[in-house]
Design a protein that fits this description.
The protein has 396 residues and is of the alpha/beta class. It has two domains: 300 residues, TIM Barrel, CATH 3.20.20; 74 residues, Immunoglobulin-like (Sandwich). Strand 11 and strand 12 form a beta hairpin. It starts with 6 loop residues before the first helix and ends with a strand. It has ten helices and 20 strands. The chain has an eight-stranded parallel beta barrel with strand order 1-2-4-5-6-7-8-13, surrounded by five helices. The chain has a five-stranded mixed sheet with strand order 14-20-19-16-17, with helices on one face. A four-stranded antiparallel sheet has the order 10-9-12-11.
């Protein structure tokens, strides 16, 4: 076996390619909009939260007009999705959803959604039905909406829990989303006052990504959700605070994840999660932009920390032509190069010390056998002439 590029440098190459495709998706809660927190040059997408149907199946953002924010986003090259539903539905909204998702009515409702997207000059649709609102109508509705959106050229995404897949979401419905915004926060909160602690720890983020990999959702269709808020378990009832409020209490809080019984994500954890997202996913998702800081605390901005992390990685390594998403991941007996990449002819598997542990010709089916490899993290390089693809996986 020959020595390879030092693994740290090699992974930076992987990060660089990912940075080119990397998304920074910020939800904009229309009831909590503060224009100073929308740093357009540091975003790729925003999701306007939330639109719901009325009794006639017409969408409304609770009386808000999105035209000004859509125009501002587009002026800065940021795409705008409308996010449907939300974590809590008023009774009339819930009733409308259950009515308009019925097979005999969903065609009209989907037509109204497409009309809303077109009239408001939007770029896509995000579905954020959660928990008790996800029923047996969810997957058929998603598939029907996907057909219409795809025909019109608009992408469709979803917000799903960090480590739970609703049993009503079929494999076909999960595959219909262009990507999924993983809500990797709210592990605990006001609903669990006797369970104080960090509601969005870094270790849980790692576990969530592995969970969704195992559910058949590859990293290139995941965004890692991060919170711009925290929970204070020292109050009764438990109080939620925006990150901006936490920094206003004491700017030193920005470098921590806890003060007293107040738990949140400070700058170091947000940076670490961004690095994790760049290694394993297609982007970072933020709930929500209105929680970030404004003057005089702009030096403590979490969105700025995300952006600077992406830019730092992007300038540390040269560009590679293609990032691979390997299947399955973690893997036991074999790993597969995606079928669209089977023009690659030769492979190398590189361990964390930068040593090529296995190499050979790439089989026509794209499978690479893993027998004889020790458990651990590996990088993959595949070649076809001057073309190179890179990826990474965990050997169980």
């Amino acid at each position: 076996m020959k020595n390879a590029l030092p693994i740290f440098s090699f992974l930076l190459l992987v990060f660089q390619l990912h940075a080119q495709q990397f998304k920074t998706v910020g939800y904009v809660a229309m009831w909590n909009v503060d224009t100073c927190t929308i740093q357009w040059d540091k975003l790729t997408h925003i999701n306007l939260a939330f639109a719901n149907p009325d009794a006639a199946g017409q969408l409304h953002i609770d009386g808000e007009n999105p035209s000004a924010i859509v125009a501002a986003a587009h002026a800065h090259g940021v795409e705008v999705f409308i996010s449907l539903a939300g974590g809590y539905l008023q009774p009339d909204w819930e009733s409308a959803w259950n009515y308009w998702m019925q097979p005999e009515y969903r065609g009209v409702y989907i037509s109204n959604i497409l009309q809303y997207v077109q009239e408001n000059n939007l770029d896509g649709v995000d579905i954020d039905l959660e928990w008790q609102y996800v029923n047996d109508l969810y997957s058929p509705f998603v598939l029907a909406l996907k057909d219409s959106l795809q025909w019109a050229g608009w992408p469709m995404t979803a917000a799903l829990p960090g480590s739970y897949r609703y049993p009503q979401i079929t494999a076909e419905a999960l595959a219909a989303f262009d990507w999924v915004n993983l809500m990797i926060y709210d592990l605990t909160g006001p609903w669990a006052p006797d369970n104080p602690g960090q509601h969005s720890p870094y270790t849980w983020a790692e576990q969530c990504l592995q969970y969704w990999n195992a559910q058949g959702l590859p990293g290139n269709r995941q965004t890692l959700g991060v919170p711009f808020y925290g929970y204070d378990f020292g109050t009764n009832p438990v109080n939620g605070l925006d990150y901006s409020e936490i920094v206003a209490l004491n700017p030193d809080n920005a470098q921590q994840d806890q003060t007293g019984q107040l738990y949140y994500n400070g700058i170091p954890t947000i940076v670490a999660k961004t690095q994790l997202a760049m290694q394993q996913t297609a982007g970072v998702m933020i709930w929500e932009l209105g929680g970030d800081v404004c003057a005089p605390y702009e030096d403590y901005s979490l969105l700025s920390a995300i952006y600077q992390t992406i830019q730092t990685v992007s300038t540390e390594a040269p560009t590679l032509p293609m990032l691979l998403t390997m299947y399955p991941n973690p893997a036991a007996d074999l790993i597969q190069v995606p079928s669209m990449l089977l023009r690659f002819e030769r492979y190398e598997l590189i361990d964390m010390q930068g040593i090529v542990q296995k190499e050979g010709r790439l089989a026509t089916d794209g499978n690479i056998p893993l027998q004889g490899l020790a458990s651990g993290l590996y990088a993959v390089k595949v070649y076809a002439g001057d073309a190179v693809g890179v990826g990474r996986f965990v050997k169980m």
